[in-house]
């Protein structure tokens, strides 16, 4: 590929990586990771609510990595309640998984910015063979993509396997029991997925620019070796 086209490819990859870093940083600070509804099971059983009557006992919940809000409905109207994970919910949530998600989000943002810088450096500067060259670009993209995948896996397990929404809904509830009626991942969670796909796309752009994947052998190495062996 001509040098001018390589510059364009690296510029596009750098812009995508920078946008990924900004998107991930914005996603971390929001409460739009999970949205759902919670059923006041105790209240519904007390009045034997069915059909349309259940709507009076279905509240809402949404939360992110640091804070959120729930609206409890127990037949007397909605009552909103703001909460934060640190330090309010630290005792009832899987803290190690939750902290790991935050750490991997931080690593994703940092390495996406590093990748963006190196892509731009390779586009307009004199690249080195290791850190600034193609091997480095593959490395930063791989780390960012891996962090995005780990974030989605860990957070999904926290929500689905450890029933995070129910633990939050029943926080400081003495006589009432709440059950998750429905939940779905919201915008911020899907932004992390997009960021992972962008980093994978950046690696493909480096390959499209004409640079081999790391640890890949040239196709003609076997042919050359065979020709040398035939000479002896």
Can you walk me through this structure?
The protein has about 230 residues and is α+β, with helices and mostly antiparallel strands. The chain has one domain: Butyryl-CoA Dehydrogenase, subunit A, domain 3 (Up-down Bundle). About 55% of the residues lie in helices and about 15% in strands. It is built from seven helices and five strands. A five-stranded antiparallel β-sheet has the order 4-3-2-1-5. Strand 2 and strand 3 form a beta hairpin. The C terminus is likely disordered.
Largest sheet: 5 strands, antiparallel
This entry's quaternary arrangement is single chain
Strand percentage lies at: 15-25%
Overall geometric form: elongated
Pfam families: Clarin-2
Family: Belongs to the clarin family.
InterPro entries: Clarin
Membrane topology: Multi-pass membrane protein
List the helices and strands and how they pair.
Layout: H1 3-28, E1 34-40, H2 41-47, E2 58-63, E3 67-73, E4 78-84, H3 95-124, H4 134-161, H5 164-169, E5 178-185, H6 187-208, H7 221-230
Antiparallel strand pairs: 1-2, 1-5, 2-3, 3-4
Question: Which keywords apply here?
Answer:
Butyryl-CoA Dehydrogenase, subunit A, domain 3; Clarin; CLRN1 protein; 232 residues; transmembrane; five-stranded antiparallel beta sheet; single chain; elongated; 5 strands; 7 helices; transmembrane helix; alpha+beta
Q: What's this model, at a glance?
A:
The chain is α+β, with helices and mostly antiparallel strands. It has helices at residues 3-28, 41-47, 95-124, 134-161, 164-169, 187-208, 221-230, and strands at 34-40, 58-63, 67-73, 78-84, 178-185.
């Amino acid at each position: 590929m001509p040098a001018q086209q390589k510059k364009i490819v690296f510029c596009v990859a750098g812009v995508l990586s920078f946008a990924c870093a900004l998107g991930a940083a914005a996603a971390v600070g929001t409460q739009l990771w999970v949205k759902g509804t919670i059923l006041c099971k105790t209240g519904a059983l007390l009045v034997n609510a069915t059909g349309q009557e259940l709507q009076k006992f279905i509240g809402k919940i949404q939360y992110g990595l640091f804070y959120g809000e729930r609206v409890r409905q127990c037949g007397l109207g909605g009552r909103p309640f703001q909460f934060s994970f640190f330090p309010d919910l630290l005792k009832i949530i899987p803290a190690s998984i939750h902290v790991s998600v935050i750490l991997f989000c931080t690593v994703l943002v940092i390495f996406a910015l590093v990748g963006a810088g190196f892509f731009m450096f390779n586009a307009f500067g004199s690249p080195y063979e290791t850190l600034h060259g193609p091997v480095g670009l593959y490395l930063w993209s791989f780390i960012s993509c891996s962090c995005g995948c780990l974030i989605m896996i860990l957070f999904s397990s926290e929500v689905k396997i450890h029933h995070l929404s129910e633990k939050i809904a029943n926080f400081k509830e003495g006589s009432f029991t709440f059950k998750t009626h429905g939940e779905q991942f919201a915008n911020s969670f899907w932004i992390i997925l997009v960021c992972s796909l962008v980093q994978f796309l950046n690696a493909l752009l480096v390959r499209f620019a004409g640079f081999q994947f790391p640890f890949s052998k040239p196709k003609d190495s076997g042919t050359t070796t065979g020709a040398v062996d035939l000479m002896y």
